[in-house]
Specification:
homodimer, disordered C terminus, six-stranded mixed sheet, four-stranded parallel sheet, alpha/beta
């Protein structure tokens, strides 16, 4: 056995040694690991059982989150119950609970009211929105990492137009009809493009006192171009495309300060009732609290097999991991999850040598893509770059393939076709906080504990 | 002109007298009135303009609300943006605002921060959950009238199973796996049936430590039979069908008291973490505050033309109205809305005699129906009663026809087919209150102001 001591459990007549694997977080990495474990464990003698812990009861398909924020999809379209995904693997137990910390020495995951021991640990905690340590900024600019964020942005945007329709004061109306997206990465580009579509097409004929097509949309990027991770050409194409949607793209423009309804740039201060933040992410605070070396951005410096230095039975995968040339995107997290599942099931079924002999994780680059509104996308696959309708169709197809659940695929596809043909969006409803008030026996909490 | 003074507005070269009609509430009655006005006004010279006010931006298809509460549908599937429904009627303006009262003498609708004058008023305020004046009961038992209620019930039910899966204490686990539905009308019957399906089929294989099929479901009805408004035979059929789903139906059983997690009946006190209330509705508090005679249940005693006594330019429609032999159901509200629209557009286009000569409202009974889980329903159309799969198919078809929006019809139909074939539900996600936190510039409020 590498690392931890196996717990002995009575199983039937014979007492068999079963390893307990705990995965923390049901994002792309954690879920890919769980499914790979599930497939492999069901073909082995009873050597391992798995517990997956997440604070939500659903896996969130984050790449389409911006469409929930812009009223194209509803939450359940991209949020799939974890239990339902994993129901056919009898070795897997799912637990909805809040993780508060880890004891790597005693091999315990600390939960809100209890703790769980493990033989092997897989940390798939994901990233959270980061405001670069600027306190208070989260009050002024909503991020887009959780379903909560997406619902808040949707309510804020739609309410701004409702309020503008009734506003008497022209200054107030102008603030309400100004949207500022901060951060020109894929999320910012997709969000600004979708807001452009929303105002230019979807809401166009719905108001009597305001003209939504006159709404001002700004995309602020500190660097010299959009989509910095992509080849330069694609950044230029995205910029052109956003400008044709009426988005005011500001490059090399750093946000100096944020206030309640105001964004201060070097050149001017913009008043806006809708400030959205996609400029930074950071590893989950629970990962940052581990006694493990980290890189400058706080991500964990793992060994080549993805285990934590000094803890060969604990692994980290996904956005909390720092590896050269591996981007913080869903495909990389999924590959890491499968790597750990393969490595551990091999060890469990046939015994192991020393940790040094474990295979190293190898990232296989499958490319990156982003959409910019209607029938436009940029993609970068291998050495080739694509854009235009072909890239957009590829984007649609790939996202449908990876979205889990046949039901969700059909519903998302139908809504895409519907809004493409009619310029209408299906989830234009404003849910307010009291709409989903927590049942009394669980207190709502503002901390986020897993990437789910 | 009957009633109010017309406001004069400059229109083009000629100053034409345009009547201002204000509809309060975008439920079934208000929306039917608005659509009928929109159709008729667009074919007339400019004689009238219409303002529709609702505190939400969506029309809620309440008959399917119990399916949102039981995770079969998501909110946007049955909540359609009001602006989008009415966009093609240029004479109609939609305003999302909170109504706080009415000044029938000065002909003003009082809003949170302003007021709106009217020549004609149509009150379509709808009903709210009533706990028969028992203070505190709303803390212990959630009603089902709004999208907020449905999301709260869904989160509460799904969380109960999640918590039961982790619970160590058998007593606590039992409470969590007990659901009490109070009220044996159509909503209570449909809700209990759907919860039966959820626990017996949908969640069956998803847990490792609990058996959801063993969950205890009770339906408590104070009267001697279920579906008191329906013919007796259908009440018996519903009862049998619910029992076959494992629902413990208690007739002639009055709730003596409610507490935090307990329901006290004459024969026993039941501990339950999921107490749902469908036992009573009352007219909206804004209707109850009007200086107009009311019946014993607080509904307005209107004149035969649906106008308020002494206020011939103010009308009331839907669930706030007391009329003999007219049930508080959607078709009646819609018929009333169309009656008022017809009556007023006739008056506006051709002048009027005295209010006494106005046509009286005539309710055309199209029947009533309720579903009880999978492939079962009861229907009562004219003198005929139906049940079984044929009634269920009729129920599906009629609800699809009346659900507004092609997109919504397709999505709801697909989800029904999907869950029928697979025993899976698509909206099994737990949204917590912070998930849709209100934007800071509007304070969340707990009062409900329109039937929308």
């Amino acid at each position: 056995m590498t690392g931890g001591t196996r717990r002995n459990r009575g199983k039937g007549v014979f007492s068999v040694s079963i390893a307990r694997i705990v995965i923390c977080g049901a994002g792309f990495g954690g879920l890919a690991a769980a499914r790979a474990f599930g497939e492999r464990l069901s073909r082995l003698p009873p050597v391992g059982e798995l517990l997956l812990i997440d604070k939500e009861n659903y896996h969130l398909f984050q790449p389409l989150l911006y469409q929930v924020a812009t009223a194209g999809l509803s939450g359940p379209d991209i949020a799939i119950p974890i239990r339902s995904i994993l129901r056919r693997y009898p070795q897997i137990t799912v637990r909805m609970d809040r993780i508060v910390g880890f004891d790597l020495e005693k091999q315990n995951v600390l939960l809100e009211n209890s703790s769980v021991g493990y033989d092997y640990l897989v940390l798939s905690l994901g990233a959270v929105t980061s405001y670069f340590g600027r306190t208070g900024w989260e009050e002024y600019a909503v991020g887009l990492k959780t379903l909560s964020d997406a619902h808040r942005i949707r309510a804020q945007l739609l309410l701004a137009f409702e309020e503008a329709e009734c506003a008497e004061d022209p200054g107030r109306r102008k603030d309400l009809l100004t949207v500022v997206v901060i951060g020109g990465g894929p999320t910012g580009v997709e969000l600004a493009g979708a807001i452009g579509e929303l105002t230019r097409h979807v809401l166009r004929r719905d108001f009597r006192h305001i003209d939504p097509t006159k709404a001002r949309i700004l995309l602020i990027e500190a660097g010299p171009r959009l989509l910095a991770q992509f080849p330069e050409k694609l950044g230029r194409i995205a910029e052109r495309r956003l400008k044709s949607l009426g988005v005011d793209v500001r490059l090399s423009s750093r946000v100096q300060d944020l206030g309640n309804g105001s964004v201060t740039l070097a050149e001017e201060t913009i008043r806006s009732a809708n400030i959205l933040w996609t400029a930074g992410i950071a590893p989950h605070p629970l990962a940052a609290a581990l006694p493990v070396p980290r890189d400058r951005s706080g991500r964990l410096l793992v060994l080549p097999d993805l285990s934590l230095p000094g803890h060969p039975n604990a692994f980290a995968i996904g956005d909390i991991v720092s590896l050269p040339n591996v981007p913080a995107i869903a495909p990389a997290a999924m590959q890491m999850g499968r790597h750990v599942a393969n490595l551990l099931t091999a060890e469990l079924s046939s015994g192991v040598g020393p940790p040094e002999n474990r295979p190293a994780f190898r990232y296989r680059d499958k490319g990156m893509m982003a959409t910019i509104g209607r029938a436009a996308a940029v993609a970068w696959i291998g050495k080739a770059v694509f854009n235009g309708p072909a890239a957009w169709l590829a984007w649609l197809g790939i996202h449908l393939v990876f979205l889990i659940g046949f039901r969700n695929k059909v519903i998302v596809l139908f809504q895409w076709i519907w809004s493409y043909l009619t310029y209408r969006l299906g989830a234009r409803i404003i849910l307010r906080s009291e709409e989903v008030a927590s049942p009394t026996r669980r207190k709502p909490s503002t901390s986020s504990s897993t990437e789910g």
